[in-house]
Design goal:
18% of the residues lie in helices and 30% in strands. The protein is an alpha+beta fold. A nine-stranded antiparallel sheet has the order 5-7-8-9-1-2-3-4-6, with no helix packed on it. It is globular, with a radius of gyration of 25 Å. The N terminus is likely disordered.
């Protein structure tokens, strides 16, 4: 048998039958399809754990962690003349990203993420590292401290003493 260029292709022929090769190809294809379905299902579970939506940064892990239950979920603050701040807290260990923050106002849209800086006490407060910019042209944020207030709101204050902001539970969080 030739290749049209005067060379023999017998060395390239596979000794197995066509049926066996097709069976192997089918098995490989099934494994690949299974992996794709598994990855898609994992993404759906993460989105549902986050309240049915994925934040801009998609960095808040859905794994078990150290963040007390009362902190978890979506929070929102409206700042007169400075737009809206949407904060999402998820589970994580020290060094993992647990905070996702989106700032929207008339002049900018920025997203930030921050890691858990140290293990919290049972009821907090949470100490977060500096907030990295994940989208937009904003200045990174200083480390912060999160405290649950007796009325159910969340206080985020700068560890440098530069200020604080009070967040309320988002209507999207049950």
């Amino acid at each position: 048998m030739g290749d049209g260029w005067g060379r023999s292709t017998a060395a390239y022929e596979h000794p197995e039958g066509d049926e066996e090769r097709q069976g192997r190809r089918g098995s490989v294809l099934l494994v690949l399809v299974g992996l794709i379905v598994l990855l898609g299902a994992g993404g759906t579970v993460v989105a549902l754990v986050r309240g049915g939506r994925v934040p801009d940064t998609a960095t808040v892990p859905a794994s078990a962690g150290l963040v007390p239950e009362g902190f978890l979920g979506d929070w929102e603050a409206r700042v007169d003349g400075a737009g809206t701040r949407r904060l999402t807290l998820g589970q994580g260990q020290v060094g993992e990203r647990v905070l996702s923050l989106v700032v929207d106002d008339a002049h900018r849209h920025c997203a930030f993420a921050a890691e858990l800086a140290q293990p919290p006490d049972v009821d907090g407060p949470l100490r977060l590292g500096a907030a990295d910019v994940t989208s937009g042209t904003c200045t990174p944020g200083a480390p912060s401290l999160l405290t649950l207030l007796p009325d159910g709101r969340l206080k985020r204050e700068s560890a440098t003493g530069a200020g604080s902001l009070i967040y309320e539970r988002s209507a999207e969080t049950p």
